[in-house]
Amino acid sequence: MFSDSEENYLKAIFHLQRFASDGVSTNAIAEQMHTKASSVTDMLKKLSDKKLVNYVKYQGVTLTNEGKKTAAKIIRKHRLWEVFLVEKLDFSWDEVHEIAEQLEHIESDVLIEKLDKHLDFPKFDPHGDPIPSKDGTFPERDKVLLSEIKVGESGVCVGVKDTSSSFLKFLDKNGVALGKKIKVLEHEEFDDSMRIQIGKESMTISHMIASNLYLKTN
Amino acid sequence: MFSDSEENYLKAIFHLQRFASDGVSTNAIAEQMHTKASSVTDMLKKLSDKKLVNYVKYQGVTLTNEGKKTAAKIIRKHRLWEVFLVEKLDFSWDEVHEIAEQLEHIESDVLIEKLDKHLDFPKFDPHGDPIPSKDGTFPERDKVLLSEIKVGESGVCVGVKDTSSSFLKFLDKNGVALGKKIKVLEHEEFDDSMRIQIGKESMTISHMIASNLYLKTN
DNA sequence: AAATAAATTTAGATAAGACTAAAAATGTAT
DNA sequence: ATACATTTTTAGTCTTATCTAAATTTATTT
Ligand SMILES: [Mn+2]
Ligand SMILES: [Mn+2]
Ligand SMILES: [Mn+2]
Ligand SMILES: [Mn+2]
């Protein structure tokens, strides 16, 4: 149906579109894709011909409905495979992204649905990111950055904002994982660092850490 | 490491090499790959540069040790994924080949080993074909074509020679599957058809069928 | 409102992989 | 041994996806 490259562009535009209120810029896409602006322009023309994006020269792009649907499907595949890798093959959450980048391009509708069933229809991936349903709807979950939580309150870890391997490895090392209960013990005004309770341990974390961890409060 | 196309050529040469005693011909590869001889020549040069094949103009090719190792690895991946699809995702054996053709190109050594473990280190795929080990060794199994078995003797179905979807579907329809015990009741000289007992049923099968089913005799 | 800077597109090149048509090498039959 | 047929290679073209460098458009300053 679509080439791997086309699918990767659609995914990139989809993710960038959430932040930019207007069209997504050529440069933004180039940066996201680690490619050059001229390559992006070429691809935008092609995607526009295929009615996947609304493209006006010099004005940036937005996804059409068809483009959104296609992007959601790829993200669905990516995240389902990530769940598989962690749940069934015993990978840790910092190792799965690269492999899922490949697996997301495997084409077979039956495969996705069977995989979904095998995994018992998960709603969120190993990083807490929502898995769109077959029709492209993303499940919502009210989550708050740990950095926004007041002293004395607590919540359950449901996701990470930064999904870099180094951050995930740091969390592992300190016993932080999805489902863990975290309570804010202290908040240092000076540098916005926090003292938190996680399980029976307590630890101090920087603002950098606290602003990349999502909690679900009761 | 290698492109999907390169991998597919290596696999094709590997399979053709089992029959041809000397080098594999350009035309044979072209037919197997559903491509043109000129495209094959181009690729052979490339594979030769990469020391994956021994190529002498007009003389056909053979795989180098490196080429054999690479081909075995791809076949290993293909067959492990087929086991996964049948055992874990509940596909039937006639549906898995096309998907495995895609999955075999996913690159991650850790993934293959974890998949192998998850499947409990299978030695044969859903069609009875041997799964090479990490070092490229193919497990052997003494098997005989059903058409070679004498009246009164019996064996257990361990593989198929023809793996076409139509043949596999026919077998399913008639209750033939790997592990089933089959006993030869009669043999018709005229057309080499056979009357066989499978489970509690008995049925007549053509020579075409009998010469594409492998049994393991006791 | 120019002038300058930044972003974007165009033009032209390159590489992989495939194809067609023509040329060259090899094999077969008189 | 020569002619004919088959196989294989070469030459040249096409598509996709990328790049660099130059041109163009849009945005920002003075
Ligand atoms: Mn990911
Ligand atoms: Mn993820
Ligand atoms: Mn197969
Ligand atoms: Mn198989």
TrEMBL record, chains A, B:
<dbReference type="GO" id="GO:0046983">
    <property type="term" value="F:protein dimerization activity"/>
</dbReference>
<dbReference type="InterPro" id="IPR038157">
    <property type="entry name" value="FeoA_core_dom"/>
</dbReference>
<dbReference type="Pfam" id="PF02742">
    <property type="entry name" value="Fe_dep_repr_C"/>
</dbReference>
<keyword id="KW-0805">Transcription regulation</keyword>
<dbReference type="GO" id="GO:0003700">
    <property type="term" value="F:DNA-binding transcription factor activity"/>
</dbReference>
<keyword id="KW-0010">Activator</keyword>
<dbReference type="GO" id="GO:0003677">
    <property type="term" value="F:DNA binding"/>
</dbReference>
<dbReference type="InterPro" id="IPR036388">
    <property type="entry name" value="WH-like_DNA-bd_sf"/>
</dbReference>
<dbReference type="InterPro" id="IPR022687">
    <property type="entry name" value="HTH_DTXR"/>
</dbReference>
<feature type="domain" description="HTH dtxR-type">
    <location>
        <begin position="1"/>
        <end position="64"/>
    </location>
</feature>
<keyword id="KW-0804">Transcription</keyword>
<keyword id="KW-0963">Cytoplasm</keyword>
<dbReference type="InterPro" id="IPR036390">
    <property type="entry name" value="WH_DNA-bd_sf"/>
</dbReference>
<comment type="function">
    <text>In the presence of manganese, represses expression of mntH and mntS. Up-regulates expression of mntP.</text>
</comment>
<protein>
    <recommendedName>
        <fullName>Transcriptional regulator MntR</fullName>
    </recommendedName>
</protein>
<dbReference type="Pfam" id="PF04023">
    <property type="entry name" value="FeoA"/>
</dbReference>
<keyword id="KW-0678">Repressor</keyword>
<keyword id="KW-0238">DNA-binding</keyword>
<dbReference type="Pfam" id="PF01325">
    <property type="entry name" value="Fe_dep_repress"/>
</dbReference>
<comment type="subunit">
    <text>Homodimer.</text>
</comment>
<dbReference type="GO" id="GO:0005737">
    <property type="term" value="C:cytoplasm"/>
</dbReference>
<dbReference type="InterPro" id="IPR001367">
    <property type="entry name" value="Fe_dep_repressor"/>
</dbReference>
<dbReference type="GO" id="GO:0046914">
    <property type="term" value="F:transition metal ion binding"/>
</dbReference>
<dbReference type="InterPro" id="IPR036421">
    <property type="entry name" value="Fe_dep_repressor_sf"/>
</dbReference>
<comment type="similarity">
    <text>Belongs to the DtxR/MntR family.</text>
</comment>
<dbReference type="InterPro" id="IPR007167">
    <property type="entry name" value="Fe-transptr_FeoA-like"/>
</dbReference>
<dbReference type="InterPro" id="IPR022689">
    <property type="entry name" value="Iron_dep_repressor"/>
</dbReference>
<keyword id="KW-0464">Manganese</keyword>
<dbReference type="InterPro" id="IPR050536">
    <property type="entry name" value="DtxR_MntR_Metal-Reg"/>
</dbReference>
